Amino acid sequence: MIVDLTDAKRFLQIEEEMTEHDPLITSLIEAAHKRIQRECNCVFLPSGSSYPDDGKRYFIADDDILLVIKILVCEFFEGRGSGNIPSHVDFMLHPYKEHAIG
Predict the structure, then answer these.
(1) Which of 29, 46, 83, 86 is most buried, with most CB under 10 Å away?
(2) Dihedral sign of CA atoms 72, 74, 77, 82 in order
(3) Phi, psi (5° rounding) for residue 53?
(4) What are phi and psi of 95, to 5 degrees?
(5) Using one digit for the tens of pLDDT, what is the confidence trace for 21-69?
(6) Distances, alpha carbon 33 to alpha carbons 4, 15, 39, 41, 97, in Å
(7) Which sequence ranges are marked TM in the entry (predicted)?
(8) Which helix H or strand E contains 59, and what residues bound it?
(9) Under 8 Å between Cβ of 32 and 85
(10) What pTM was computed for the model?
(11) Where are the domains of the chain?
(12) Would you list the DSSP string of 12-47?
């Protein structure tokens, strides 16, 4: 996982000792990661990873991507999300999206 459970819980302001939501938060991290990969048509890798040579678009997840995942986890966890990517998150993803020319 690009964002670990401890970081997500800190962002959600949930104490580490509270573990009742851990499985849910873990699944939300994975869902948010997959969602942004679909949105950008690329694969985000953890820091220190090497790029596979299989023709896909790869990026090392920088601080912006880690924050995007945490924001989406928060939206999902608190039930505030409409299912749409918020405009400020879309702005953060813009550099990673494929853009057609012409």
Answers:
(1) 29
(2) negative
(3) -105, 70
(4) -65, -20
(5) 999 999 999 999 999 999 999 999 999 999 999 989 999 999 999 999 9
(6) 12, 23, 10, 12, 14
(7) none
(8) strand 58-60
(9) no
(10) 0.89
(11) 5-96
(12) TT--TT--TTHHHHHHHHHHHHHHHHHHHTSEEE-T
Strand pairing partners for 57?
A: none
Average pLDDT, the chain: 92
How buried is 44 (Cβ within 10 angstroms: 0-12 exposed, 13-18 middle, 19+ buried)?
A: buried
The confidence score (pLDDT) of residue 85 equals 86
More confident of the two residues 64 and 79: 64
Hey, what are 62's tokens? 């920088």
**Residue 49: its H or E element:** none
Is residue 73 within 8 A of residue 11, CB to CB? The reply is yes
**The pair of three-digit structure tokens given for residue 3, joined into one six-digit string:** 């964002």
Place of tokens 């678009």: 57
